[in-house]
Specification:
about 260 residues, alpha/beta, Rossmann fold, four-stranded antiparallel β-sheet, about 35% helix, globular
Length: about 260
């Protein structure tokens, strides 16, 4: 994995990805390409495999005993499911922010410092905490209360802290699994503004059920639905502006106009 940070045209690419839970096929034949420093949204009805695919990008599905996959997930042209790939190291490079904010039951400061140290950080911790909180647009709100419990923050602040915590281990990619679904509209817009700012330095892939969010915040959008076997399939992938104004597939148009899903 020494060359994983070397530039390539696509940061992540899937080729014929199939994911199963036991005998059930959750997603079928997914082929996608993700460009560097872009925000890509994955949208579609509940149960169509959006989160399953997202979790394949940093091998979070490894924690589900019945899960197994065929096809390839390439990170800088290397198959991440190859036995030689260290999943722990992979997750340092490809961070994840979950649907429900999940700060550690520690101080704001320790939420960032502890995770970074666990991942081998040996620099100035104070500087790292300030830098990542600034990146997450949270520093000015918490700088005088860094020893305060992270659990005392609002939901939106907790989610931005979780983003800061993910940034502290210096990832290249940030995966976001419906990061705003538990937040109010104001906190949601703050996260969207933050995503746009972070995309200058990071590649972001977001699963969202909120089509307005996908339209506002992403550069590219992929629409998933289910086939007759209830396996998730990708219908269409394009620039977000085209997906929402000139979709090529009737199923996409039906979904984004509210005719189904």
């Amino acid at each position: 994995m020494e060359d994983m940070n070397q530039p390539s045209k696509y940061v992540i690419e899937t080729r014929g990805l199939n994911i199963f839970y036991g005998d059930f096929q959750a997603v079928k034949d997914i082929s996608l390409q993700f460009e560097r420093n872009r925000i890509t949204a994955i949208i579609g009805p509940s149960g169509c495999g959006k989160s399953t695919v997202l979790r394949a990008f940093n091998r979070m599905n490894d924690f589900v005993p019945s899960a197994h996959a065929t096809g390839e997930v390439l990170y800088h042209d290397q198959n991440i499911n190859h036995p030689s790939v260290d999943a722990v190291q992979l997750r340092r490079l490809i961070g994840m922010v979950f649907q429900k904010p999940n700060p550690f039951p520690k101080s704001i400061y320790d939420n960032i410092a502890w995770g970074a140290k666990m991942n081998g950080f040996r620099g100035n911790t104070d500087d790292l905490v300030e830098e990542t909180l600034r990146q997450a647009a949270l520093w000015n709100e918490v700088k005088d209360n860094l020893k305060k419990s992270a659990l005392a923050l609002s939901g939106g602040q907790q989610q931005r802290l979780c983003i800061a915590r993910a940034l502290a281990v210096r990832p290249e990619i940030i995966l976001m699994d419906e990061p705003c679904s538990a937040l109010d509209p104001i906190a949601t817009l703050k996260i969207e503004d933050l995503m746009r700012e972070l995309s200058q330095n990071y590649t972001i892939i977001i699963v969202t059920h909120n089509m307005q969010q996908a339209a506002r915040a992403s550069d590219y959008t992929s629409f998933f639905t289910m086939d007759t076997d209830r396996a998730g399939i990708m219908v269409e992938y394009n620039e977000t502006s085209l997906i929402f104004t000139k979709p090529k597939d009737q199923r996409t148009e039906d979904y984004i106009t509210g005719r189904f899903g």
